[in-house]
Amino acid sequence: MGNPDNEPKISYSTELGMMVESRAELALRASIFEPYLGEVQLIFTSPPFPLNRKKSYGNLEGTDYVEWLADFASQFKRFLKPDGSIAIEMGNSWKSGEPVMSTLGLRSLLAFLERGELELCQQFVCQNPARLPSPAQWVNVERIRVKDAFTHIWWMSPTTRPKANNRSVLKPYSSAMRKLLKTKTYNAGTRPSEHSIGAKSFLKDNGGSIPPNVLTAANTRAYDPYIQYCKNNDISLHPARMPDEVADFFINFLTDPGDIVLDPFAGSNVTGAVAESLDRRWVSIEVNHEYANSSKSRFSQQSMRQE
């Protein structure tokens, strides 16, 4: 299935990036990655989640996960620029056989921050409104919990002021705001919260509204070249694909064109494909040969290099 013990090898490459087939632990110590030391602007990744039972994509179980993830902190830091960022998606976990949540995710985060001597810049929540009800026993069968429909994305950095620009991720104004900007009328003054709001700041067109740290995205698109390629070639789909919109947000927010984006647990390589579409350089690592090989379907034939 994968290339867990051999020297990391390039599965494919484009003008802007490359997919490396290997375990992340091996790849990040290999000579092929030496040119990237201190050069990466963003490590954006979704490692296997801290679950209490194994999944097909290779998560670790229980407390072993905490130590495994923490070991990557100092490795990741070696590749970052001084003002670089790490953004890690981490799902929720539940105690085996009980309708209560596990603290594995939080313990993993704290261990990672401590081991890497990193600052926690901001917490993001990524909600999937189309996510199936889970945990099924407690939600569907016994009806004693509501469905778990979000993951956390933890934004970290070696510095308190990493490169970031929220002007790059502005959202379109609401119809009410567009009307306000057109009429130039606003009810300024002191609010019940005792905040005093002046009309001038609210009547300035900044090109869009500043987004919140709650992102909503669902992987429900009817047609996707990757999905079609896997179906046509009888290849198993990666079971935990990152929505393009999430990668797009963090890459735009935390990098500029030409910067390097690294994904050590690439899966179907959404990170690399989105980075390429935004004119960023990228490097992805995936241990599963089938996932790594099929992810090339996300790129046009014109962009591919022959290895």
TrEMBL record:
Recorded superkingdom: Bacteria
Record-linked InterPro entries: DNA_methylase_N4/N6, MeTrfase_CN4_CS, RM_Methyltransferase, SAM-dependent_MTases_sf
GO biological process, one term: DNA restriction-modification system
Reaction catalysed by this enzyme: a 2'-deoxycytidine in DNA + S-adenosyl-L-methionine = an N(4)-methyl-2'-deoxycytidine in DNA + S-adenosyl-L-homocysteine + H(+)
Record-level Gene Ontology MF annotations: DNA binding; N-methyltransferase activity; site-specific DNA-methyltransferase (cytosine-N4-specific) activity
Protein family: Belongs to the N(4)/N(6)-methyltransferase family. N(4) subfamily.
The protein, known as: Methyltransferase
Organism (species): Caldilineaceae bacterium SB0661_bin_32
